[in-house]
Amino acid sequence: xxxxxxxxxxxxxxxxxxxxxxxxxxxxxxxxxxxxxxxxxxxxxxxxxxxxxxxxxxxxxxxxxxxxxxxxxxxxxxxxxxxxxxxxxxxxxxxxxxxxxxxxxxxxxxxxxxxxxxxxxxxxxxxxxxxxxxxxxxxxxxxxxxxxxxxxxxxxxxxxxxxxxxxxxx
Length: 170
What we know:
Order of helices and strands: HHHEEHEEHHHE
Largest sheet: 3 strands, antiparallel
Helix content: 40-55%
C-alpha cells in the first residue's frame, strides 16, 4: 500500500504520505493481532535480576518498528484532531523511529500506540524482534551509542505488556 501511494503522481508532493500509511497499517495490524498474555512484570523483574546466562526476550508479535525521515507520528496525530483544531507539523523537525504495539505509549489498556525511540533503542528492539537474544541486541545498541542503557527501555517494554517471555540459555 505505501509503495503504491508513493508511486501515485497525485501524492508526489506529499513525500511523507507513504510512511504515514505504513504507520497506519502497523497500528491496524497491532490492533487486530492475536491477543497473547504479557509476562507478569514482577516475575520478569525477579527473573532478570537473577539471570546468569543469555536471556532470550520474546516480544509481542503485534509489535512493529517503523522508521521514517518524516515526523509521521506527529502528522498522524495532527490528522486525528477535529477539523479546525489541527496543529501545524514542521516537516523539517526530523524523522521518527517508532515501536508500534498494543498498550505501549497509551493510557488505556487494549489501545494501540507507539514509543518514539532513539537510534540505539530502535536497534535493540529490532534485534530482539529478530532473534530475542538480549546480549546481541545490547551489543548492537552499544555500537550505536556506547552510553546507551537498555534497562529503562526493557522496563517500559515489560510494564507496557510488550514482553511475552524471558528465557535463559546457559
